[in-house]
Amino acid sequence: MPNSPPSRCGLCDGTTWAAQDEKVALCFKQMTCLVDQTRAASTSRRTLPVDSMSLQSSKNVLDGGWGWVIVVVCFVAQFLAYGSPQSVGILYPEWLHAFQEGKGMTAWVGSLVSGVGLIASPVCSACVDNFGARPVTIFSGVMVAGGLMLSAFAPNVQFLIFSYGIVVGLGCGLVYAATLTITCQYFDKRRGLALGIVTTGTSVGGFLYATAQNELILLFDLDGCLLIIGALALNLMACAGFMRPLNMPAYYLKQKAALERTEEQLFENPPADDLKTTPGASERTLTVKDLLIIIDAKDITTTNKKGGFMAGSAIVKIIKEKRQAYSKYMHSTADFLHNRNFMALCIAIFLFSLGAFPPVLFMEDVAQSEGLIDEVSIIPLVSIVAVTAGMGKLTLGILADVRWINSLFLYAFTLLGTGVALLLIPISRSYVGLQILSAVVGFFSGNWSLTSYITTKIVGLDKLTQAHGILMFFGGFGIVLGPPVVGCFFDWTQSYDLAFYFSGGSVLLGGVTLFLCALPWWDKKKADIDRFDIQYTSNCDKVASVA
């Protein structure tokens, strides 16, 4: 069609396709590059991991959606991990009969399995921050299952202390840190309810595992019971697959920053042929955390490029920066301990763990020692403690979300109730009385669902993992000391009366301490002092007279 106007291309500024061959090739190249850039940008958006959501999208998924899947998965994870440790009171008499050791020595197994994980909470929290909840849960599944299976071949109590107490305890600590951290990330307004449901998994696991372990011991002996329970714990790795994090962990961000830095170095001075075929890199929006990690990666890659004295000075510079970072971390830890409410909570949870955990371990042995029952009943006292603890976690979690209820006072009330129930156990001389008191102790022991909630209220969500790790360290230290101390009391007096008086007094002391420190008149007194200082320094005459 000779009369038709020539077609034009907007990229070549009016040049016709048929007129000049060189500009046609250039135009086609520009169009190809534009298509490749668009395709690369869309591909990068598609291949971007679903786990690394932006902060804006993370706000949209709070309190619903995939968060409820996280709640269910974390519930199952705590059920599988803590089922056997929470019902270790069923295994305790069997170990006493099998190894013929003292009650104080054998009690170390039950105390370590619950205390080691809490003592190592700062390390467990750091692992979750750096690697994410999913890899940590997979690794913890291997530890819990391996420790339980190793315990089936234990030749003595000392081996049990390592396999069941330390290995299983560390695995449980990793599960606990991972499940609580990812649950707090997915929930804001309903955080108390979500944490209550998640932590109920330990109680439901203790209730069902107590009866299951009792029946498995009758059918397959103690060794077969531990092997079967260990095989069930392998399902923790399946639970980890559903733990989709809202933000990429620090370890993956460092790897990503190092990779991007390497790509930048490769494309700094590319060959002429590569300029013809390689499209430009698309821009990405980085958060503050990404930028900090990229700066760290740039420092590391700079040291790799330099040699001799320059490389040594760069390494010294990085070491100084790391030391400053660790110094800031220690200062922030000291700031937590200077907080009156947080320090009172640490003391309270230490005294609560010191006094409230031993009854759970020794309750069945108390009933048998007093001659109230001949053997473990169909529904053991440990199961009663576990199921009422689950009810307590749900109830206390719901109450924590009520606006007019102070969570610190609520936690202090649970300590006071637990202490009174423990003091009444030596007075009770019937199995029904022990069942009622076990239910009361179990219900108030559900206050573990409040620890993350209260910690978030005191220090904020950004510092939750660090502060919660410190808090759990105090709790784990009390759990480790409690059962051996109570066992030594029994070996010394051949009676549990003095031991339970010690336990009840410790818990009561923790409740009174927290209640007094949480009173609002401390803040009012501090405000009055600050107001007095302001009025005094604002008066020029008084300042001049003092000078």
Keywords:
single chain, 547 residues, Growth Hormone, Chain: A, 78% helix, 0% strand, disordered C terminus
Write the layout of secondary structure elements.
Blueprint: H1 21-47, H2 55-60, H3 66-86, H4 88-99, H5 103-119, H6 121-131, H7 133-151, H8 157-186, H9 191-233, H10 236-240, H11 250-266, H12 272-277, H13 288-305, H14 309-338, H15 340-369, H16 381-400, H17 407-424, H18 431-444, H19 451-459, H20 464-493, H21 497-517, H22 521-537, H23 540-546
Helix pairs in contact: 3-8, 3-9, 4-5, 4-9, 4-15, 5-8, 5-20, 6-7, 6-8, 6-20, 7-8, 7-9, 8-9, 9-16, 11-13, 13-14, 15-17, 15-18, 15-20, 15-21, 16-18, 17-18, 17-21, 19-20, 20-21
Main location: membrane
Subcellular location: Membrane
Membrane topology: Multi-pass membrane protein
